[in-house]
Amino acid sequence: MTNPTTASFPETSSQIVELLSQLRGSAEKKQLQIISEQVNTSPVGLEVLMEFLKEEPLSPPSLSAGLAYQTLYQANIPTTQEFLQTHFPAGIVPLRSEMGIDYAELQQKLAQQDFLVADTLTLEKLCQLGGSTALGRKWLYFSEVEKFPITDLQTINTLWLVHSLGKFGFSVQREIWLSLGKNWDKFWPKIGWKTGSNWTRYPNEFIWDLSAPKGHLPLSNQLRGVRVFSSLLSHPAWSVKAE
């Protein structure tokens, strides 16, 4: 995309080319650093992000693509709005569902970094996956979790992962859980759900931003019981590559 405003300034075009070259040739960790530190919400920075997203593979989207998308989304100016509406009308993460469930609002809240509302929506969507009875009671049995469609669980997880710089999501929690030998007593304090003998109280004691410990969200402890959470973290969705 060539911006007529920047095209008349060779030094600006050269900045865009240089930043794009850095992004293309860097590993994801470095890309995140470049986007966070060098690419800002100036016209040049936004132009770089739009060009980057147009050529970045998005199946599934990388954390770098997620950060680029969020930066453009939160800029909330006509140029970025038009770009996102044209190229990503449903968001950066493909909202696949085997049950016809709509994840658009969840993606929107995560893009806005409204993690509290996103967490509430996540539980609602999980209960939808559990069926009408689970949706009515607003919590799940482990046997319902075991039957979750792989596609839907991966969609929810990818939304959290991509919109949190890889900090939140079921797969992140699973990785921590496995690294601790599936020891729940070590797991709860590690992700900030327990301090000493005291459980973190919902919602005010939880941290609803990226300063939270890794794996802090979403709050699957609200699903009632270790058996339910164990079923979630042991689901076959984590053994199959997400599309």
TrEMBL record:
Q: Name one GO molecular function term.
A: tetrapyrrole binding
Q: Pfam family example for this protein?
A: GUN4_N
CDD domains found in the cross-reference section: GUN4
GO CC terms of this entry: outer membrane-bounded periplasmic space
The lineage's top-level taxon is Bacteria
Q: Where is the GUN4 N-terminal ARM-like repeat domain?
A: 11-89
Q: Please list the residue ranges annotated as the GUN4-like domain.
A: 97-236
This chain belongs to the protein called GUN4 domain-containing protein
